[in-house]
Write a structure and sequence with these properties.
By secondary structure, this protein is α/β, with parallel strands linked by helices. It contains 23 helices and 19 strands. Helices cover 37% and strands 11% of the residues.
Length: 684
């Protein structure tokens, strides 16, 4: 088995590059990947079955008791024993690996792996170096101020994806001419929801920044009447896809409810018809960037001027005038030699066209090219981002935790991979000055600053394309058929999984914030490593959670029951557990200490918990513990001294923790001691 795996590993790099343009290689790679997942699941299953003898308590058993445990494991077995399973998998793997001879794949080494340049992460503000679009900005500003005689002015900006419509909208949004305006930014996305748009505008205009969650349009209209009346408001509606005239008219009517004020609305959309339907003045068609400007962007991103061979290098301008493609290409070329620049210019990828729109084909081709030269580890991490809905604001630390839970990276490497994907422009810092419709409303519970990331729509399309039928997406525009599923993004948690789910490794529910979680919503997916329930209503965490023996990541906030099932303590592989905002939980299971590998625990907002279980001190691998807003909790000092690996500890607004100077002295790795000061000052 080991020799077969080593043979496979040597061929993967070449196969990964070839699969971008060659369908036969892509199919071979799918079969191979499916077999590798099966091997991984088999090893996990074996570890779970034999876990009882690896626990420290098992060493106390006598040899007779040891045999009493082991003999049933040996004699009461399935028809196919583990040894037979392994032999069958080895044979299947050899058949698949032998097929590589048809494709003449070449063995590679890590030494040949392309170097990927790290970039320094910057703050989430608009880019300081924007090439081009200055003239367009001035034209739009002139058009707006010439037309702002009515109470509402709506100017759409339209053009193909990736041209820079959102960047141009941000340039206008941040222009000093609008400094006296109250400002609102709403990311609309492909799923049009008028109530969410209305609530987002209300939330951003409210003085206290209170989250709005009106369920009826009448209440939304009344609130907007007050907020828009006699005021100057600038609203950006980014990425509008809805073309239905009734819905668009309802949107315009909602924005017109304020009297005596001046409302300016900028809309970005790819569709000219939508632009014409919603506009009150002539829509602005954004033209592609010129080849010269694209070349300037490529040179900027590739540090062209510092190269000694710059005179020999040729302009690679196959970007269809799209800034996103130019930025990604430039970053890719940064570490390449002259011969590699030539190979980029002559690549077959430019000739692969799966889209009727030539411009879109060229953009996708340039992004594919950047993807094809990525190291295999980075491809894996990037493709996984397809599990998020388009336009979703991704919490950076959560993404890394999910990568770690799936075995894609370590925490330290995850930070580096994020930086590399930012360099390729495959991830972007979320620069919108407000909350997106796609951010789960639970984010507001966090006290610390969070780094939010997003993906451009075209990059998201690429992630879904390379993930292909490995991901099941049920919802608007999603696929529902396939046999290679390892990841799932679903829009209904109110029923059991209705498909073959045994291979699913990561499961995320979206837009289920008004749907109660079914007790068997995930229990059939026994290979799950990542389970995200953050957008579900969890009246009670099902006891079936205990069957997910491979689970590493569980995000289950706002549990509305008083108890967490004891079965959660059987999840011995669990690394990350998030129960924040579960204000009705009275206590954790007494056996919580059995999850000895737990590294991250978020109990923030669990305000009814009064005491931690005695076994809590066994969680010696904890590096992150958040107990903020656990206002009733006490007796923490007796456990803290044993949690010597803690790097993050948040005890803010824990009013009953008392004095703990000696316990804190043992925590030499803590990064943020200031987080508990207010608790000490308020304790009595």
């Amino acid at each position: 088995m080991k020799m077969a795996l080593e043979s496979v590993d040597a061929l993967l790099e070449d196969a990964g590059k070839r699969s971008v343009t060659d369908k036969s290689t892509l199919l071979w790679l799918k079969r191979l990947k499916d077999e590798m997942y099966a091997i991984s699941d088999m090893i996990d299953e074996f570890e779970a079955d034999t876990e009882v003898i690896s626990q420290p308590s098992a060493r106390k058993f006598s040899f007779k008791k040891y045999l009493a445990i082991m003999i049933p494991c040996i004699t009461v077995v399935p028809k196919i024993t583990m040894a037979n399973k392994m032999e069958k998998m080895r044979e299947d793997l050899e058949v698949i690996t032998d097929q590589h001879k048809k494709f003449r794949l070449t063995e590679g080494t890590n030494a040949n792996e392309p170097k990927v340049t790290d970039i320094r992460e910057t703050s989430s503000i608009m880019e300081t170096q924007i090439v081009g679009r200055t003239e367009e900005k001035e034209e739009i500003l002139s058009s707006l101020f010439d037309s702002m005689t009515e109470e509402i002015t709506i100017l759409p900006i339209y053009g193909i994806g990736g041209l820079g419509k959102t960047t141009l909208a941000k340039m206008i949004y941040n222009n000093t001419q609008f400094k006296e305006y109250s400002q609102v930014w709403v990311y609309v996305s492909q799923i049009f929801d008028l109530k969410k748009i209305g609530n987002s505008i209300i939330s951003q205009l409210s003085e206290k920044g209170k989250e709005s969650d009106y369920t009826g349009m009448e209440l939304i209209h009344k609130s907007l009447q007050k907020l828009l009346a006699d005021k100057k408001i600038l609203i950006v509606l980014d990425d509008l896809w809805e073309g239905d005239e009734f819905h668009l008219q309802s949107l315009m009517d909602m924005l017109r409810v304020g009297k005596g004020g001046k409302v300016v609305v900028i809309v970005t959309t790819r569709d000219e018809d939508i632009a014409k339907k919603i506009s009150t003045i002539k829509p602005y068609k954004l033209a592609p960037l010129t080849d010269d400007i694209c070349w300037s962007i490529i040179k900027q991103k590739s540090v062209f001027e510092s190269r000694v061979d710059k005179e020999e290098l040729e302009n690679i301008g196959k970007c269809a005038g799209v800034a996103l493609a130019a930025k990604s290409l430039g970053h890719m070329l940064q570490s390449m030699k002259f011969s590699e620049w030539e190979s980029v210019r002559d690549s077959d990828i430019w000739n692969v066209s799966s889209l009727k729109d030539t411009s879109s084909s060229q953009v996708l081709a340039s992004l594919k090219l950047s993807y094809s030269v990525m190291p295999s580890y980075l491809k894996l991490c990037f493709a996984y981002c397809a599990i998020f809905p388009k336009g979703h604001k991704i919490i950076k630390d959560d993404l890394i935790r999910q990568w770690v839970s799936l075995g894609f990276s370590t925490w330290q490497l995850g930070e580096r991979y994020i930086s590399q994907l930012l360099g390729f422009s495959f991830l972007e810092h979320s620069k919108s000055p407000s909350v997106s419709l796609c951010i789960p409303y639970t984010i507001k519970l966090y006290d610390e600053d969070i780094t939010l990331l997003t993906m451009h729509d075209l990059v998201h399309d690429l992630a879904r394309l390379v993930m292909d039928d490995e991901i099941l997406v049920v919802g608007k525009g999603g696929n529902t058929e396939g046999s290679w599923y390892h990841y799932a993004l679903l829009d209904d948690c109110s029923k059991p999984l209705g498909f073959e789910s045994s291979k699913i490794r990561a499961l995320r529910f979206m837009d289920c914030d008004k749907i109660e979680l079914h007790r068997a919503a995930f229990s059939s997916a026994k290979s799950l490593h990542v389970l995200d329930l953050s957008e579900c209503i969890i009246h009670k965490l099902p006891e079936s959670i205990g069957v997910l023996k491979q689970l590493r990541y569980l995000n289950a906030p706002r549990v509305q029951d008083a108890l967490i099932p004891n079965d959660i303590s059987t999840l011995s592989k669990l690394l990350y557990l998030n129960l924040h905002g579960s204000s009705k939980i009275l206590a954790l299971p007494e056996s919580i200490g059995k999850i000895e590998g737990l590294a991250y625990l978020d109990l923030s907002g669990c305000s009814e918990i009064e005491k931690l279980p005695e076994s809590f001190g066994r969680l010696k691998e904890l590096v992150h513990l958040d107990l903020s807003n656990c206002s009733c909790i006490g007796g923490i000092s007796e456990f803290l001294g044993s949690l010597t690996k803690l790097k993050y500890l948040n005890l803010s607004r824990c009013k009953k923790i008392g004095e703990m100077p000696e316990a804190l002295g043992a925590l030499s790795k803590l990064d943020s001691p200031k987080l508990w000061e207010d608790s000490f000052n308020s304790s009595t």
